[in-house]
Amino acid sequence: MPAIVIMVLGLGAFYLGWRFYSKFLAEKVYKLDPDFVTPAYEFEDGTDFVPTNKHVLWGHHFTSVAGAAPIIGPAIAVFWGWLPALLWVVLGTIFFAGMHDFGTLWISNRHKARSMGLLSADVVSRRTRSLFMIVIFLLLLMVNGVFAIVIARLFVKFPGSVLPIWIEIPVAITVGYIIYRRKGKLLWPSIGALLTLYFFIWVGDKVPLALPKMLGGIPDVGWWVIILFAYTFIASRLPVWLLLQPRDFINSHELFVALGLLYIGILISNPHIAAPAFNHNAAAGGAPPLLPLLFITIACGAISGWHGLVSSGTTAKQLDNETHARAVGYLGAVGEGLLALGAILAVTAGLAATQSEWLGSVYTSWKAASGGAAGNFVNGLAHLITPLGIPHHLGAVFAAVVVVSFAGTTMDTGVRLQRYIVSEVGQIYNIKALRSPTLATLIAVGACLALVFGAHSPGGGVATGALVIWPLFGTTNQLLAALSMVVVVVYLRKLKRKTWPVLVPMVFLSIVTVWAMLANLGRWLFGDSPNYVLGVLGVIVLGATAWMILEAATAFAKGGAPVTEETSE
Amino acid sequence: MTDLFERMYRGWRSFNRWYDGMFFAPYRSAVARERRDREELFLLMCFSDLLGIPNPVSYYTLELLPTMLGRFHEWHKRQGIERSPLEGFR
Q1: Single pTM value for the model
Q2: Residue A85: which of A371, A349, A406 has the closest Cα?
Q3: pLDDT band for position A508 (50/70/90)?
Q4: Which helix (H) or strand (E) holds A219?
Q5: Would you kindly state where each structural domain of chain B is located, as residue ranges?
Q6: How far is A544 from chain B (nearest CA, A)?
Q7: How far is B19 from chain A (nearest CA, A)?
Q8: What radius of gyration do chain B's Cα atoms show?
Q9: What ipTM does the predicted assembly reach?
């Protein structure tokens, strides 16, 4: 089948979802009120609460939620066939992610822009706040662990990407310096930074940098992980204006450029999908059952709990008008769906010409699909943009830089957030030492390193870490999304509104995610080659979730006592 | 023709506003918080002598006091102290 057909169908479905379903949610479920005084106006302080232009806020929300995860998940899941992955990405974005991001933004807006953790304390019960914090900390731990290994493997597989990635750091610092210290204009330094980065992609392609295969008993991937966490330790302690903000901004340009090139490349080259619609030999290739694992393998790109954290607490504080929640929340999720759809097209149409070649030399086994997910996307994207005059080897470095940049910035943000949580625990329990930013950062980085080096598959070495952490990351992310939906459902019930548009996805997601978690726990704790690190983490996440669902069920049953709805009057 | 140029200019300006917003909006609060932390450290250094903390550079910071007075009052209010904690600073 031509990739253009799938692309057009996917884009068409997203459009219909936005045009009709988001309208239904806005009018019949969330009942957006244009006269509601948003927290951005009610508490306007020029710092946290600032009414922000709808388009700017959408861009902010989209670039905050989009990262490497909507690329890696679909790149693994196509091993079951392109059709299940495509259906979950498209339907997930329309009925799950769009509703979830929109709903969490709306409910936060109705509750003084509180974060989901605080909201759960208000709407469900006080205990749920601590449980939320535990789940969020573990999710961040897994995100950092997975992305460190993904970056390390890309550095080893595409050594041309090493130079541009490290060059991006002084380039970003220069942009931060020009804007904040020299009070310069933003546009030209940013364009200069992007051009410098692309120049070094060309240089990096000519001058690949690699570490020795083995040093002191640790493989090159392991050393890259150590170097990355040393960098993250320093980067997360720097002021945000100096590195994180300008680097994130340069990354957002890379994202738009890469997405544009990918879709234009497909339009021009018109490749055929080489992957099978259903891979009937997936089980023989070592794949776990599609049901329920598909729904946790693709988390970001179909639905992600991470988005609820961004929607509530951050985006909600800047909402200019409640009616903007539809465009910002729903279309933010659609943006990530576009990235996931692009990833599916890149790995199914950009890696091989025929099905036998695709199955025989690229997606040979589940292990190859999981371990090589980011690399497969990089090669697929590189192939699809060759008709634009970009040679494959250069395109591969370009695509690797895009993925690594995203993952790197997410690690920086993730370690910062973990540090805040550690400090908050220090404050709550009055442990002075934990309030030290240096110690809190050391604990965050140390926990991530312990996970990466402690959770690798038996006999596989650190390089296989991402492969084993990914399912736990997906499960935790989906459970977090289910928990956010629980809060929205309880609130809708208290308002005596329609609950099914949120309740049905919530129940479905809870069932498949708990099912997947139980299957994984069985393997990690009682399988032939147990992995107790992941097993214990999984038990904690599942326990916290079960507890929260019980609390929510109690609150739902007490739904007869409606809350006082904050209205425009 | 002038109309076209005017419209192009307006479009260019609104693009720049959007572009600036994309850069500043995501980190507005984090940057403001960092700026406030530095400001408070600076104020503490300037007024440390008056708070009983020896200041080796008070010879220089003393000169700043007249210009710092307004910011000092904002600072102690931020700390939850409604009235100036120092004698002579009202």
Answers
A1: 0.88
A2: A349
A3: very high
A4: strand A218-219
A5: 2-78
A6: 30
A7: 7
A8: 22
A9: 0.74
